[in-house]
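Objective 1b. Sequence-to-structure analysis of F5/8 type C domain-containing protein.
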Amino acid sequence: MNKQTCLLLLLVAFLFACKKSDVPGVPTEEVPVDTGYHYKSDYAYNLNVVYFIASDKTANDDYHRRISELMLQGQDFYGKWMKHWGFGDKSFGLLKDAAKKRIKIVEIKGKLDQSNYSYDSGAGNVLKEIDEYFAAHPGEKTSGHTLIIMCVKDIQADKAPFYGLGRNCFALDYPGMDIKDLGTTGPAGAAATGWIGGLMHELGHGLNLPHNGGQKSENAQFGTSLMGAGNSSYGKSPTYLTKADCAILNNNQVFSKVTRTDWYADFTPVITRLNAKYESGNIVVSGRFSGGGTVNYINFYNDGNKNGIGGNKDYDAVQWATQKIGVDSFYVSMPLTEFSNTEDYPYELRIMFCDQNGSWLNVPYPYEIKNGNPVIDFGDKNEYSKTNWQVTEFSSEETVEEDGKVSNILDKNSSTAWVTRWNTNAPTFPHHFVVNMGQALAADGFTFTQRGGSSKIKDMQILTSTDNVSWTVLGNYVLKDVGGPQVIYLPAQKTFKYFKVIVTSATDGRQYASLAEVGVFRN
């Protein structure tokens, strides 16, 4: 063998013995890493699945197989109910190797120990590091929705985040968590149902789903709503997604097989007409709306105060979902027999507009059940036009840190509000405003719409005048800490040109006041 041939063989041997990244001039990022799995998806966007390990932990054994199997089952579960309710053969997208039953999981090693990723205050630290990872590896992020699975060794001691947080959601993986234990008896089965079921429930929140408990007949037929108490039944007893859940998911980014550029863009639907009544055992609600973009479904949630209203107290909310009628109308008839609870409590009806870009907006209305019958006191009240009305006097308004100008109470938009000054030199009670209606009008009552934030009006006094000089006290009134218009009926019809509202307390006990809308109506 001549000298030139030997040198050539040595060079070939060197190139094959070294990794490509070890060869001078070849960047590491160009080296393809073959994990043995080849992930594909026919969805335009896919759920990001992150396995997060604190610096003082090591990954739990066999987590890739275990998490893959439970997520693939979860994908089938979500898809089953999408198809059942008529939304087609779709579920959340996953990058997966179907033949080997594995999904793509992004493993991220935390910079801090577990104490910095606690349930109460550690979610922000986790999200910060995940954002940093995706910023450095943009190709790894395939949608705006991320499931974060926290690696724990001891569920109670490690106290990892376990909840939804916007389009992120947290769950956990403990040693040995396995889908094979779902539905079995004993401690392993109980743990699997609670934590795997909990993962699927929190995933729902990360996919934009609110709590709801389903209709009584659906619960009898299908079991427990996943977004109700489904984290304690999943895999052990029948569990399902409600139609309202699937109406939201139908517009979700990771359920889409087509791309669009306006995912979750703001939209501002406004209800322009609303009729509501209780008759023949049904709560009947109909109306029209404008500014709804490409709304395709309207959901209705009846949330009773047996366990509290809103927030984390709406697990028992009874839902309906309907397609819009034409381009701007809706109608629903909700039998009281479908309510799991019909005790005498305050209730809130939330009307949710679902847009095709994934956005949704709730418009709340209060009512109550008395002696077993709903008392419906919302809906159009023949309000006077406010086009020429003016606020002629007010105590203060916040216009520096937010749009809290007092004129917002007359703009016919419940998403804007008057807020008393809080940026500097914040005044305390009483707060007030005076409205000039431009002409003397005969009135049977007032409507007040609380804003969606803090410092809602609680106690107030209403006065009227024909000349803005002499004032008559109509009475003292109390508003509820709920959304939607609240109606105050006058004991007798009253004619006036001006009215004054003096606020003396807020529902949250703070020194400020706020109000979204005020109106005057005649029956």
